[in-house]
Specification:
Distance between the termini of chain B: 18 Å
Largest sheet of chain B: 5 strands, parallel
CATH class of chain B: Alpha Beta
Radius of gyration of chain B: 15 Å
Distance between the termini of chain A: 12 Å
CATH superfamily of the largest domain in chain A: Cytochrome-c3 Hydrogenase, chain B
Strand content of chain B: 15-25%
Structural class of chain B: alpha/beta
CATH topology of the largest domain in chain A: Cytochrome-c3 Hydrogenase, chain B
Number of domains of chain A: 2
Radius of gyration of chain A: 21 Å
Number of domains of chain B: 1
Largest interface: A-B, 47 and 41 residues
CATH class of the largest domain in chain A: Mainly Alpha
Bound molecules: iron/sulfur cluster
CATH architecture of chain B: 3-Layer(aba) Sandwich
Structural class of chain A: alpha+beta
Largest sheet of chain A: 3 strands, antiparallel
Helix content of chain A: 40-55%
Oligomer: heterodimer
Number of strands of chain B: 7
Number of helices of chain B: 5
Order of helices and strands of chain B: HEHEEEHEHEEH
Chain lengths: ~400, ~140
């Protein structure tokens, strides 16, 4: 006996609005389907009405966890369009904030994973330590989440000696705590038992379904834009790409913990080798007609911005491909033949950032594995369609 | 006597439902951060609840998107009376940077009545706590 269970858009297991349809047979999921669009705001269209500078603040608000990833990706692209090169010190500070953001994002994720696995004290621990990173970011930029530190041609704030010292001191604490998490995450029997073997994604599937970020790295594929196509200063910074071979949620946890240590190393390197000089150069107001693709390794995976200019002070087109979108197809694969109780865990394991991914509305058809991109114009029609689908679901018959 | 008791328990344990209606996640994360050890709103008896049927206070983040509008109304109707709505963040108040986007209606107050507005983009967890305490004081009075 098969029947469908709708989960979401408002559901305890999901922090953000997304709707999952699962066809189940007893406890086992046979099929899964994602319904998106609850968080679609029409941001790409909005970007066409704003100037290059205003768009930095708009792209920052694509997502609150990887806000710096989106601005950096955007700013890198615009700098290429305007043919300017930010000064070295500006770049160092920019990527310093990137790595701090990665730490905050991974700690946040560890907490969420702990919470989904029923290990709430782990959640509280990691979030307590996350406050240390938030404090550093606040000291550098003046805000906890939307840093607003990027500008076209560099960064807006400089670092002084005292701040550098504070960051290094805080890092020492974080490093110590992370060692404890590493120990806990890989040795605590009940935690490991809950995570191991859940959400299996083989190496071949991960590549075929274009998974990105820690999801693909946990399937043993060393894919990282910082290494594969170094942008900014990453060709000078020594670091390793962390992978795991277990292909499950445990592997994804291990990859993220290992990445934390890489982040600490990168930050230490950046601070010790911080060049002197200005932090930004003046940028022109207009960009020549051209187009550019900018890649960036966000905490969740590869982030791609496509920017087209037409000689005015506004972009003609801005397209954002957020990492979560790349991982949706793989999620469907992971959910299949799993248990209902594992859904939150598997779903959390890709570290979904729904507000990031909701650009053009994409429906992933689980049955054919095909992705259907629906044009912006068809959006209204789509929402009606989805709403109609919901109405039917409400009267769905239950086997009891 | 009974009304006194319900009034007291309402003040001492407001349970909240956190609802994202199209936010950029930053406000959501700050709301969750308010529950964690540094800020710890649980000392006011505040608990994060998973379903609107258990909640007294709906904490809304984000502008109301067209897709979410009907769900927002449905969730508001599912919450038992008396219910209160806190709009967290510039988005929930007015739409913030998304104002004017084709899929955004505007603030939450375009769709459901709002009791407390907490400004900020994103709001600081301290501000969320302040908003909740203001609501509690309003209830007392
Ligand atoms: S108010 Fe700002 S931080 Fe909060 S959801 Fe809106 S854009 Fe994001």
């Amino acid at each position: 006996m098969k029947f469908q269970i709708p989960i979401g858009p408002q559901h305890p297991a999901l922090k953000e609005p997304i709707s999952l349809r699962m066809t189940v047979e007893g406890e086992i999921i046979r099929d899964a389907d994602l319904r998106l669009g609850y968080n679609h705001r029409g941001l790409e269209k909005l970007a066409e009405q704003k100037t290059w500078i205003q768009n930095i603040y708009l792209t920052e608000r694509i997502c609150g966890i990887c806000s710096h990833s989106h601005t950096t990706c955007y700013v890198q692209g615009v700098e290429k369009l305007m043919e300017i090169e930010p000064p070295k010190r500006g770049q160092y500070i920019r990527y310093l904030v990137s790595e701090l953001e990665r730490i905050h994002s991974h700690l946040l994720w560890l907490g969420v994973a702990g919470h989904e696995a029923g290990f709430d004290s782990f959640f509280m621990y990691t979030w307590r330590d996350r406050e240390i990173v938030m404090d550093i970011l606040e000291i550098i930029s003046g805000n906890r989440v939307h840093y607003g530190i990027n500008t076209i041609g560099g960064v807006r704030r400089d670092l002084d000696e005292q701040q550098v010292k504070h960051i290094l001191d805080s890092l020492a604490i974080l490093r110590q705590r992370s060692e404890y998490y590493q120990h806990l995450g890989t040795n605590e029997p009940s935690f490991v038992a809950r995570l191991a073997g859940v959400g299996y994604l083989s190496r071949e599937d991960a590549i075929a379904l274009c998974a990105v970020g820690p999801t693909v790295r946990a399937s043993g594929v060393p894919m990282d834009v910082r290494k594969d196509d170094p942008y900014g200063i990453y060709d000078e910074v020594p670091f390793e790409v962390c992978t795991a071979e277990t292909c499950d949620v445990l592997g994804r946890t291990v990859v993220r913990i290992k990445e934390l240590f890489q982040c600490y190393n990168i930050i230490e390197y950046l601070l010790k080798n911080l060049p002197t000089g200005p932090v930004a150069v003046r940028a022109p107001r207009r960009a020549k007609p051209n187009e550019v693709v900018s890649r960036y390794e966000a905490p969740r995976g590869e982030n791609i911005h496509y920017i087209k200019s037409n000689g005015t002070d506004k972009p003609e087109r801005l397209k954002v491909r957020a990492p979560t979108l790349g991982n949706y197809a793989a999620t469907i694969k992971m959910l299949k033949n799993g248990f209902i109780a594992d859904v939150p865990l598997i779903f959390a394991a890709i570290d979904p950032c729904i507000c990031c991914a909701e650009r053009a509305v994409a429906l992933v058809d689980a049955r054919s594995g095909q992705e259907k991109i629906i044009s912006m114009n068809a959006l209204k029609q789509l929402s009606r369609q989805v709403a109609a689908g919901n109405a039917r679901k409400r009267e769905a018959e239950w086997p009891l | 006597m009974l009304t006194k008791l319900t009034h007291w328990s309402r003040l001492k344990s407001p349970w909240i439902l956190h609802l994202n209606t199209g936010a950029c996640n930053a406000c959501d994360i700050e709301v969750v951060a308010a529950l964690t050890p540094r800020f710890d709103v649980e000392r006011f008896g505040i608990l994060l609840k998973a379903t609107p049927r258990h909640a007294d206070v709906i904490v809304c983040t984000g502008p109301a998107t067209r897709q979410m509008k009907d769900r927002l109304i449905r969730i508001y109707e599912q919450t038992p009376d008396p219910k209160f709505v806190i709009a967290v963040g510039a988005c929930a108040m007015s739409g913030c940077v998304y104002r004017g986007a084709y899929n955004v209606i505007g603030g939450i107050d375009q769709v459901i009545p709002v009791d407390v507005y907490v400004p900020g983009c994103p709001v600081r967890p301290d501000a969320v706590i302040d908003g909740v305490v203001k609501l509690l004081n309003k209830l007392k009075g």
